[in-house]
Amino acid sequence: MSARGGVPDPATAASLTPGDLAAVPAAVVSRLRGAHRVLAICHEHPEADALGAVLAIAVALEQFGIRVTPVCADPVPAMYAFLPGIERIRTAPDPADDYDLLVVLDCGELERVGPVLPAFADLFARVPMVNIDHHVSNTGFGEIDWIDTEAAATCEMLTLLVRSMGVPLTVADGVLAASLLAGIVMDTATFQHPNATPRTLRAAAELVAAGAPLSDLARLLYRTKPEGQLRLFGRVLARMESDLDGQLLWSDLLESDLAATGTIGAQSEGLIDLMSQSETAQIALLFKEEPGRTRVSVRTRDGGPDATTLVGIFGGGGHARAAGATVCAGLEAARRDVLEAARRLIRGEIIAAEITPDGDTA
Ligand SMILES: [Mn+2]
Hints:
The protein is an alpha/beta fold and 362 residues long. The protein has helices at 18-21, 26-33, 48-62, 116-119, 121-126, 154-164, 175-188, 198-209, 214-222, 227-238, 255-261, 271-275, 307-312, 331-346, and strands spanning 37-42, 67-71, 101-105, 129-133, 144-147, 241-243, 248-253, 283-290, 293-300, 317-318, 322-327. The protein is globular, with a radius of gyration of 22 Å.
């Protein structure tokens, strides 16, 4: 890629510091460089950090003549179909290939790779594994573990890795830079979450300089929705209720809403974040009706109650501002019990937290 007006020459657009690159363990680099046949795998139910990571590691290692199979146990969701190179990702390892290294990406525990694990139990037991991840809860299941909980995304770590391996970020017609930036945009909500650090921005600056389409990625990952999804949001928002002068806000997502709008449960993603934009809400709750159970998503205001305190009562987990739980009860009963606990939490009647260190935040 040549330098054009306003686009810095990627060769001279270094933003990452030597200190940033020193965070990459030499053992990871040498293990990767010594491999011949690599299986790169991310978690099931993938999002852009997982998908971007398997694609990026594949493209980067291929620059050294290493053969890589990028795998995710689930088919790529339609909303990520625009990512360049995404069609390469398979749902299972190639049974005919003789892998000598597994690279597990963005998985807090090995089981997160999904049904591929039991289906290829022998492969996972036999072949050495490098574990690259940024989740605090990572169990350290690899032969080599590189866990960086300061990284906003696994793709931030891989940007450091690729740079320290000397691979130009411009290779593969932009697939490398776009994949890496997609993961960073995904996990930071376009640099809006508090996990976006100066290093995250330095990594992203180099990717943009290498041609990664930041504006397109932000729009396609966060501001593009099927019409049915907007109608789903409309139904749920119209049903919203509040209490305690608006400090407590909630709504229900019924199974019939999905049928009426032609959507699937995963398309409720983002709805609770919209509800949590309420000026007054300390706690926003979304109750999702499912067969035989109710999923509860929780968001809390900065400086407000800890969401993990609330969901901990119901066996859930997550983060202080975003958490979730699954209640084995129908919608009415689950809503009654969770709202009662939320009222007590807002009134300061619950002080001791039963905290689950990590869990679903959906
Ligand atoms: Mn991630």
